[in-house]
Amino acid sequence: MTTAPVAPAQSRPRAFAIFSIVLGAVGWIASWELLTEYIKVLKSPDYVPNCNVSILVTCGPNMDSWQGSILGFSNTILGVAGFVAPIAVGVALLAGARFAPWFWGLYQVGLLGGFVLVCWLQYQSIVNLGTLCPWCMVVWLVMIPLWWSGLARPYATGDIPLPERGRRFAQGFYSWVWVIVLVNYVVIAVFAQVVLDWIAEFQRY
Description:
With 205 residues, the protein is mainly alpha-helical.
């Protein structure tokens, strides 16, 4: 008796899955640290948060500002809740899950929301508050690659179908995502240097 050939299973995107889990976990930890420090400040106004390193490198002004609670509660709660998503997506991919295009679309909307919020907070922190919050910067560092990779990959892999020409463009874009991320980092660093002269601050240590 003959049996029909079985199509090989699609390889699991282990690298992307692990990437999502690691960055999501780092962002979650940073958000959790900010939340716990915020709670300690609420309990004891004299408490000095562990992220208060200097006048420039500090999170105290950020916590006390309206920018730190744009929805009426601490932004850190958004981070603690939001960074669960890339962790969950990464774990599901490692387990062999395959998501429908609409799921990837919703995931991209969530990532876009986080990226826009981070960009706005970067501007507020650097320009209006004149501070560089250590834990906030960790969130910036992980949110940027999460967004750019999450934007490009579903189209490059066909998880969100595109015409062949569009898919080739997406694949090319995805191959350069690491460069886009580096450029994004450099733009932020240069902007902060122009406004705050953070290099001079760090040279004191």
